[in-house]
Amino acid sequence: xxxVATEPASTPNCRPRWPVVALAVLLGAxxxxxxxxxxxxxxxxxxxxxxxxxxxxxxQREVTLVSLGGVAxxxxxxxxxxxxxxxxxxxxxxxxxxxxxxxVIVATDTEEEFRAQATGVGDTSxxxxxxxxxxxxxxxxxxxxxxxxxxxxxVAMSPEALRVVxxxxxxxxxxxxxxxxxxxxxxxxxVADYVARPMYPGSITRGPLPTALPSxxxxxxxxxxLSLAYDRAWLFAxxxxxxxxxxxxxxxxxxxxxxxxxxxxTALWEVLRARPADALQGWQEWCVRNGLA
Length: 293
What we know:
Elements: E1 2-4, E2 20-23, E3 25-27, E4 30-33, E5 36-39, E6 62-67, H1 74-95, E7 102-107, H2 111-117, E8 127-132, E9 135-137, E10 142-144, E11 147-150, H3 159-175, H4 185-196, H5 225-244, H6 246-257, H7 264-272, H8 276-289
Parallel strand pairs: 2-8, 6-7, 7-11
Antiparallel strand pairs: 1-2, 3-4, 4-5, 8-11, 9-10
């Protein structure tokens, strides 16, 4: 699972926070969860009820909406349709159009439904959505059985939170086949948030000056430090895009998170010609210049 951050309104320096979003990738009988392999028995996901599936906006893409909760989840999917074109545009603007043209979005009404669609996810109490794939073939740049699954309670998200979550998950959906199962979360989550989460005056408050580059160690922390890890990864991605350009951020994602990715230090040097110490200093100066530290 490439967990995506939750969005608690009360957490400093953080996006609006219900929800945690996560990217979970089912590979055969294993779940790749933030780089951990969790053994599980293969489970069959029930086909969606035909009457619940419906086409939705999404540019030239084919979108199937599955409302497992009927009248309880229909309102969420109606809201999703209003946000989908913008989410697709944001992902294509950063990543390009070469990603799956079929998008499946499932809304669940019970924990049982959610766990059946997103097998292997542990504590679901703070999860708003998860993106899963039944199989991934990096050699063919393909992922089969992909779907974005909204958890029970996601209907309570604010419009802004839904927009961020949907776009964030859609980025994971678009890049799944181009992302290694062991890709570091500081880059996968930071870039997904860069694509999904706008930065504008008042969207984040001043925080402490970063003393280290983002790392996956940050994502092993419980809340509220986990939320701060997402914020740090997001801000570092924003710094890279601002300092080196958006194409450089995309290239860094490919080099640091792709199927044949290298370590962070090598990726920074090959793409940006920056050593970790230089990248940290530049990020610190950017934070100060933008009133973030």
